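Input record (one chain):
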Amino acid sequence: MKAIQKKSICLVSDRAYRLILTNCINVMTEKGVSADIFAAVIMAVKEYLETGKLAHRPINRIRNIFDLFRAEIDLAIRRAASARKAATTRRKKSEPETVAPENKKQKPAKRFYSSPVLNALKTGETPAPPRPSKGIRCPGL
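The corresponding structure, as predicted from the sequence alone:
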């Protein structure tokens, strides 16, 4: 049974998503950022991870904090894109060709002989064993 692949809403892996958000929360908690800016930065990071761009222009304080994590986020996005591309390539190689294209009609092979061969084997027939020898070849030698 094949495993069902769920489609991620993010441009990065789930593991990278959790690591980036945890890193953001730890750094901002350590620096003592106010609650409203804390929430705005987390929302900006989530939006950037899901879409790859910011829909609105954040205020300077949020942009400064967001720029601390932007290089890490961009690296994770590039890694995830190359990993997804490699995975699709591996899947394509492992899947057998399902059906030959129907638009190409196969022509029957040309006959090798112009007339039918006598005593030729039919499909599924096995050849008869060789005849036994009728005599000795060079008697007296």
